[in-house]
Amino acid sequence: MSASTQPAIDGWFATDGSGAPYLIGAKCHQCGTYVFPPRANNCPNPACDGDELAQVPLSRRGTLWSYTENRYPPPAPYPAPDPFEPFAIAAVELADEGMIVLGKVVEGTLAADLKVGMEMELATMPLYVDDDGVERIVHAWRPVTSQRGPAK
Ligand SMILES: [Zn+2]
């Protein structure tokens, strides 16, 4: 990641040796529950009083569980490109953890291109450029297609 590109929110994702992004979640030591975004304590499982969660890399792939399309700019303080382009938001059930992670869908893919149950993989996309000229990126979902490079 170059100095001019930074995550919009620290600590939500990282990239592996090949540059592929993965989300960072947290896992409860006591009951094994996963949570995203990551947190250091206070297990989200109501039946568990665990208070120590470890940061863990999450599955890069999952199944599309639900999605929606935003046709209007978000309200302040969320940055919106001008002119506004509609974008899709996907809820993806992670392959190994079974939890749902929300994210924008990469540019150029809208609701008409999506189908519940399709395989999705993690990507990143620019969100906005901050006052220092740094491009802030966020995690995003994209459909797994055969048009891409070899699957990992
Ligand atoms: Zn727990």
Describe this structure as you would to a colleague:
This is Benzoylsuccinyl-CoA thiolase. Residues 21-53 form the ChsH2 rubredoxin-like zinc ribbon domain. Residues 56-123 form the ChsH2 C-terminal OB-fold domain. It comes from Mycolicibacterium agri. The chain is mainly β. The chain has one domain (5-144). The chain contains no helices and 10 strands. The strands form 2 sheets. A 5-stranded mixed β-barrel has the order 6-7-8-10-9. Strands 2, 3, 4 and 5 form a 4-stranded antiparallel sheet that branches. It is globular, with a radius of gyration of 16 Å. Bound molecules: zinc ion. Residues 28, 30-31, 33, 43, 45, 48, 50 line the site of zinc ion (ZN).
β-strand percent reads: 35-45%
Order of helices and strands: EEEEEEEEEE
Give the distinct bound molecules: zinc ion
Number of domains: 1
Proportion of residues in helical segments: under 10%
Report, as a whole number of angstroms, the end-to-end distance: 20 Å
Number of helices: 0
Any idea what the radius of gyration is?
A: 16 Å
- The helix/strand class is mainly beta
Strand order of the largest sheet: 6-7-8-10-9
Biggest β-sheet: count, sense, barrel?
5 strands, mixed, barrel
**Given the C-alpha coordinates, what overall shape results?**
globular
Low-confidence stretches: none
Topology:
Layout: E1 5-7, E2 13-15, E3 21-28, E4 34-35, E5 53-57, E6 61-70, E7 87-94, E8 100-105, E9 119-129, E10 135-143
Bound molecules: zinc ion.
The site of zinc ion has 8 residues, from loops.
Please describe the structure with a list of short key phrases separated by commas or semicolons.
ChsH2_Znr, Benzoylsuccinyl-CoA thiolase, Thioester_dehydratase-like, five-stranded mixed beta barrel, globular, ChsH2_C, binds zinc ion, mainly beta, 152 residues
